[in-house]
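#struct-queue
[09:14] JT: dropping the first one here, sequence first, then the structure tokens:
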Amino acid sequence: MDWDQLDLHPRVKAAVRRAQISSISSVLVLSSPVLQTRTGLSCSDVQQLLIVAAAACRGTPPIQAVLLKTGPGPRLSLGCPVLDRLLRGGLHSGGISELSGQSGAGKTQLGLQLCLSVQYPEEYGGLGSGAVFISTEDSFPVRRLQQLISEQPCLRSDVPPSVISSLKFSDNIYIEHTADLVSLQTCVSRRVPLLLSRGLVRFLVVDSVAALFRSEFEASDWLERNKQLLTLSSCLHHLSHEFNIPVLCINQVTDVFNDSEHTLGPLRSSVSPALGLAWSNQVMVRLMMRRLQGTVAREDQSSTLRRLEVVFAPHVASGGCDAAVWREGVCGVHDGK
């Protein structure tokens, strides 16, 4: 596929050619500022270029076009009304949602919580089916999952006890361990579709999407890495849209250092989701979870405060809410209480 086949304004195509950017995939490894400098295009033109290029590489329509065509699908509740309000009902079906953050922020726990929430009937924010949890790095936290299951009556006080007791939570979570990219691709292209086609699951978690790409590729292998990344994202998008399910990819973060020529102090560090622009263009919803300095207490429990933020989403305004990790799960808090 060449530039003439893409649905772009002629002046955008002309600017790309003047910049001597020959391949569509090479656009995805360049940042927006670099593309603006090389092409002379506006910020909005560059964003449209990235959206169309990413869609062409994975062989699917742009996310925005899919949403306009199909409309919003069912939502998967996070199991907490405060967190659900932030996301206008929960995770969106029909696309990839990313949850990134530093180690210990609570990302995996929220993924486990969603694996339980999906099993509830639709009237209680679930999808009435099971979940697949693909672990690519650490061992699966079985003990924490069992604790979350035992505490479901406390977390889901909105659900009748008879409904909770009727659910066999452990039997409906299919755990997969993938030690390399080949086994990960095999899992999402063969085993997961089989479970979906049989109606056994309606939710997929990959924890984490960055671990294998970081371990198997050197910095000089960026082209092959991005090729493999696009292959994986294409498969995840296909599963999400074909079966109308939410897909959650838990992501690591990387340090970003900010230096100012007007200060003699140390470099300031912040974090951003791993895997760069090539991956960012595959994500429909980006959530960030981070630990705060304060703590919150409740009865005999205490927790470090967390912050769940919506970085971008087509159906939700950017914003965030404080949260805490209790025995029963991750819950939003009001005014730090």
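[09:21] JT: and here's the second one, same format:
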Amino acid sequence: MLSKRIIPCLDIKDGKVVKGTNFIGLKELGEPVEFAKEYEKQCADEIIFLDITATYENREIIGDIISHAARVLSIPLTVGGGIHTIDDFQKILSKGADKVSINSAAVKDPKLITQAAEKFGNQCVVVAIDAKINSAGSYDVYIKGGRENTGLDLVRWVKQCEQLGAGEILLTSMDKDGTKSGYDINMLNIVCESVNIPVIASGGCGSVEDIVNVFKETRSDAALVASLFHYKEITIDEVKEALIKNKVPARRLSMRT
């Protein structure tokens, strides 16, 4: 059985790691590459950089950060935020990123998924999806940072993403995000049963128990974590120890000396 992955996510604004709620009340926490290096020492399986400003002026800043990170990290690096075209994919990957995450752009132009997969390989294409339960009990897909309901049905969209060539789904529960009440188990189970590509669980993580539960109760391949690690409430080593104790397969090769 493949090891379950633990993936720290770093929101980056103006070249710094920030944390807030729905991008409001952002607090600057430090340098992205320093955070990433520390997380690799703690046995993170991958790193995600999310450029939440993603303006033309900031492209050079995030490009330099990606280049620096790629030089010092040995684990995969995924980059998302403001990516709309194949040229954007090319620039991010040429800086040393291993994967590119797209969200709103994929909904607006689904052909971008296929074009990127054909040019760079399915393994490079991560489709990030923000979803929220509706009055009928199914899930709607949102874009623009969760501000716009597309009316797309979540299950239909994830199946389409797989057919178009996505290599992975990064699924965020808007209902759970920021609550620290645990991942959205029901939503994750529905999606994991609908596709055959890896699914990354995101939104709602508040404890190591939440991470253990998401792997024991769903077929999620990875768990995305931010605040717990950024604020040093727990280390990735400790998460891996808890997973192994609970018979969840996890890579346990801390790089600490």
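[09:30] RK: nice, looked through the second one.
[09:31] RK: The chain has a mean pLDDT of 93.
[09:31] JT: good to know. Residues 5-245 form a domain with the TIM Barrel fold (CATH 3.20.20.70).
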